[in-house]
Amino acid sequence: MKRLPMTLVAGALLTAVFAVAALVSLAWTPHAVEGMNIATRLQPPGADHWFGTDHFGRDILSMIMVGARTSIAVAVIAVGMGMVLGVPLGLLAAANRGGLIDEVIMRGNDLVFAFPALVIAILITAVFGPSAVNAIIAIGIFNTPVFARVTRGGALSLWTLDYIRAARVAGKGAGRISIEHILPNIANLLIVQGTIQFSLGILAEAALSYVGLGAQPPTPSWGRMLAEAQTMIAMAPHLAIIPGLAIVLTVLGLNLMGDGLRDILDPKLRRAR
Fold first, then answer.
1. Whole-structure pTM over 0.70, yes or no?
2. Which among 1, 16, 67, 187 is most buried, taking Cβ atoms within 10 Å?
3. Short-list 208, 150, 210, CA closest to 182
4. Cβ neighbour number for residue 185 with a 10 Å cutoff
5. Angle, nearest 10°, between helix axes 60-95 and 100-113?
């Protein structure tokens, strides 16, 4: 039995820690997330509060756990949205390579790429107001052309192969070939890209919450915890260090897991090993 890449194992362990914390927070947290106690405000990490308390006396560990739930939920839904919209567009563009449909889809992707997720979120919140749902929509819109490009690139490399020609000679249409033959053979690319976009989704959610466009109070968010900590970093550095580490470790774990999955799923890398 082949050994799993260490990057995959390390990444999966780091990701699992925060995934478990998010799941546990659905039923239990060490302290009430919305419980304020001014008498215990700005306490450093200790026995009663392992990660300390914030300027309202709220337990930071509890907020980190619920914040993990918020970040993961936003990233999963946004990446899923980008994949559901982007993969069919990429398959359609590849099936009509060089034609009008391909050109329209790819120029549309270029247009979306011109507006980062933060700018899209600003446009959406200017109309509908800031919320986690609008952050999901903004990140999902930005992810759509990413998956469209990856899908199109992977599909184009397959359309010239002999078994695809044989399927066309057998009378299969472009849509059926895309679903039955192209999509299963580029699934490895989409899985790896999905892992990478998941980590970027975590960062995007934190950035949007940092500027007040993501999850709104009283829902805890790692990005907003960083924003609230910046004026008190000299007297209570743990307020910024702990949520910052949570973001860094989660993104690192997902990136390591993506590298490990690429090592396993990429045929060229398997042959090289």
1. yes
2. 67
3. 150
4. 15
5. 160
